[in-house]
Amino acid sequence: MLKQIAIVTFGLAPVLALASRWDDWRDWPYSDKETIQKSFDLSHSSEARRLLVDNQRGYIHVNGSGGSTIRVTIHKEVRGRTQSALEEGKREARLDISQQGNYVRFYDDGPWRHHDRGDDYYGYRANYDYDVEVPSGTELNIKGFNDKIEVRGTDGPFDIHGFNGGIDMQDISGSGTVQTFNGGMKVAFRRNPEHESTFKTFNGSIDAYFQSDFNADLHFKTFHGGVFSDFDVAPLPATIAAGNDLNAKFVYRSNGGGSARVGRGGPALHFEGFNGSIRLHTKS
Asked: What is each CA distance from 10 to 14, 27, 113, 145, 254, in whole angstroms?
């Protein structure tokens, strides 16, 4: 059962998410669709396996798999308000796909990368939806902007960054950083992280699920939301001066943040939010 770990908060007004555009690009009448499928063999090098997906417009779904091959299906759609806008979008939208040893990279490019004035300015939108399978141990560097990021069944290091979309990671192992701005975050570990990790969002809550043999040093910061934990926590040794004991749940207060130890202690795990709660769950 989740119990609250109290920390100092400040009474600042919630920050609203970004305003919606004048109209939805999905309603524009002119479109051109393409499905791109690629495979990349990562068996010919002793280098670490790495994947970069840097995608401004579209979802990113990543799934762990066996073998030594990265497989990707990209659903590309260019949609325009007019036929001439569509043709301009088809000319200007570019997708850079490259492999350097065991390092595979995807990067969408266009005028919005340098001067993003919004879809209404351009009159077209180029959207790329990614479905990717990665072999065991692949290091993930995922950057999304306007849509949700989902990761399933991976076990390598991760660096996951979103902006206007939530992040959902299930059945994962590894350590790293998960960060977004407008969206909630759910991260469920098949094997608890063994190295320092960070989980951060601005407009949304953080729900993290750990195995019952959880040992870590926890560091929290939030302003409009509480911190809750299924796990018994204790004070970090000689870390913060003031503390209280509430129903055997230790509470440490310092400048809107707090720290605590779970089990024997272990890697430093940082949780930071602003408009949302932080909840640590036991994974069933």
From this structure: 11, 42, 36, 29, 12
Comparing CA positions, the residue from 192, 188, 199 lying closest to residue 273 is 199
- Classify burial at 43, counting beta carbons within 10 Å of its beta carbon; exposed 0-12, middle 13-18, buried 19 or more: exposed
Q: What is the pLDDT of residue 167?
A: 97
Cβ atoms of residues 181 and 202 within 8 Å: yes
> Which strand (E) or helix (H) includes residue 167?
strand 167-172
User: Of 158, 162, 188, nearest to 58 (Cα)?
Assistant: 162
Q: Tell me what pLDDT residue 123 has.
A: 93
Residues of the chain with pLDDT under 70: 1, 3-22, 238-256, 284
Give domain limits for the chain.
1-18+164-284, 23-139
Structure tokens at 264: 């024997």
- The helix, strand and coil proportions of the chain, stated in percent and rounded to the nearest 5, come to 5, 50, 45
- Measured CA to CA, the distance from residue 189 to residue 46 in angstroms comes to 27
So what's the pLDDT on residue 36? 97
Determine the pLDDT at residue 201: 94
Separation between Cα atoms, residue 69 and residue 226, nearest integer Å: 42
> What's residue 242's pLDDT?
42
Count of alpha carbons within 13 angstroms of residue 85, beta-carbon side = 18
Map tokens 């393409």 to a residue: 34
What is the per-residue pLDDT for 241? 40
Residue 115: count of CB within 10 angstroms of its CB: 8
Amino acid occupying residue 180: T
Quote the pLDDT of residue 250.
Answer: 40
